[in-house]
From TrEMBL:
SUPFAM superfamilies: P-loop containing nucleoside triphosphate hydrolases (SSF52540). Keywords: ATP-binding, Nucleotide-binding, Transport. Signal peptide: none annotated. It comes from the Bacteria. The lineage of its organism: Bacteria, Pseudomonadati, Bacteroidota, Cytophagia, Cytophagales. InterPro entries: AAA+_ATPase, ABC_transporter-like_ATP-bd, ABC_transporter-like_CS, ABC_transpr_LolD-like, MacB-like_ATP-bd, P-loop_NTPase. This is ABC transporter related protein. It holds the Pfam family ABC_tran. It comes from Emticicia oligotrophica (strain DSM 17448 / CIP 109782 / MTCC 6937 / GPTSA100-15). SMART domains: AAA (SM00382). Residues 3-222 form the ABC transporter domain.
Amino acid sequence: MIALLEGAGKEYEVGDQKIVALHPTSLQLNEGELMLIIGPSGSGKTTLLSLLGCVIYPSFGDLWVAGKHINQLKGKELSKLRLDTIGFVFQSFNLLAPLNAEDNVALPLKLQGYSNTEVKNKVQKALEIVGMTERRKNLPKQLSGGQQQRIAIARALVTEPKLILCDEPTASLDKDSLEIVMKELRALAKKGKSVAVVTHDPRLEAYADRVVEVKNGIATEIFKS
Ligand SMILES: Nc1ncnc2c1ncn2[C@@H]1O[C@H](COP(=O)(O)OP(=O)(O)OP(=O)(O)O)[C@@H](O)[C@H]1O
């Protein structure tokens, strides 16, 4: 098990109003699973993903990620846990425009303080996994949306995170790129990673081991293979 929510949820205070973005939720995410998080806009999907990603603390309940009780960690410990354990993939790729593909992929490793040789080897391996070795010298603007997302996936997996979290990873992609990206995420899950994907797109269900639907802040598991 990589993540466990026990009655965990999130409440925001806006002025004198309290908004429950995610009601108490109990679920676990295991190694080797691709979990889809679906639901209407504003339902709490990103909030659930942000809890799994240790980006926010739960307002109530308990959250464990990679064996750590998140409620008890300080901000700095949380940042380290994120860097060491979690890879993030976003709808808009978030690649740095002036850096070529391999330098984008190298970024998290540099933050972790790896030597140049180690960075080179790990980047090469990550680019191979996503089939982008030949495009390593290209700038983001020289790549299609699907290719940019594959570079973003390489950047997310280069640190060998146990958990890969994706927020609408296919929303900017055409059908063919969607298939390539989802097959890659599926393959990573098969290799033992835990992958969680927030989406509006029902086509992604074909790639999921589990589907969690969030409606009005209430998360319900609706499919398990
Ligand atoms: N930082 C915040 N402060 C106040 N309210 C917030 C905050 N973040 C989210 N919310 C509220 O929590 C609820 C759930 O938001 P969330 O972003 O999780 O939904 P979502 O399902 O991801 O939506 P979308 O599909 O549109 O991205 C919404 O009502 C939103 O307005």
